[in-house]
Amino acid sequence: MRSYFLREEHEIxxxxxxxxxxxxxxxxxxxxxxxxxxxxxxxRRMGELGLLGIKYPEKYGGAGADMLSTxxxxxxxxxxxxxxxTISILVHTDMASxxxxxxxxxxxxxxxxxxxxxxxxxxxxxxxxxxxxxxVAGIETTATRxxxxxxxxxxxTFITNAINADIFVVxxxxxxxxxxxxxxxxxxxxxxxxxxxxxxxxxxxxLASDTGELLFEDCRVDxxxxxxxxxxxFYAIMRNFQGERLVMxxxxxxxxxxxxxxxxxxxxxxxxFGKTLSxxxxxxHRLAELATKIEAAKHLIYHTVKLYDDxxxxxxxxxxxxxxxxxxANEVAYHCLQIYGGYGYMKEYSIERFYRDMRVMTIGGGTSxxxxxxxxxxxxx
Length: 381
Description:
The chain has eleven helices and ten strands. With 381 residues, it is α+β, with helices and mostly antiparallel strands.
């Protein structure tokens, strides 16, 4: 994506990520899609390249860069032709670890954030439950205080990195009588007694990401594993949602741009009734419409990234980005696959995977319907 906000350091980062994606990800994504998990070595290698702590302080091993740097990183990562792989990395860098970076104690940052940035430890965020998705305040997992420990009971589902993760950021009710004001975040490590991954889930798309269900049965954690303030977890979740939704929008848009580029190349070579598909006005106009919407989405996203970097409240704009870019990704998937005809339905073409991967983008991280509600609220409607 082009932007007048970009500086030399952003272009250097783009070149680094692009080279990494082309040499160390693209040749293997089909294998990882079949295996249903991203190898831990990928995280370690990204840690070596300094790609897992772009926005975190240098004293923890990060780069201390701006949100625009994260945007560049996501743009290039999302061109790996596996959104499952992309999401596995983004959960680690922009969805789970921010809770530790922004709300953790100095001790917690040194113990957990440092190895996360190095890629030695993989992290996951555990909020969603069988009966609570977008309604975060409705979670039923509890954490009951017992002396200097908390006893966690409950279950979580749709957890990305469930199999790979060593560190889980877990939301639980510490005051069952309250909704928003009764949630606390905890750090729970793999291997903690009473905590286990129940099963790996089989999905329609995002196949390279390991997604699972978690179970907590009298799982006892020390009070030092409380992340942030007790009963303030809901507000931490809402704050982090802004970065999470923004990177999801960027990933959806970047992958969409790649899908349109692929469709153009296909249309220029595929012949039907003696002419290439690109010679038919209906095809040209459809691609022109999609390209126009992608360009509009780019400007909305870059505008929002600038607001984010300036420290302004951009909840409305972030919600617009998530809504527009993810809905657009599904539109791109539909029309680009249609251009391929029967071949688009075959797994040998990446449009088939893109079509499956994009469907959940309007659901994960907050549904399109929730985004509309947030926008309307911010508009004081």
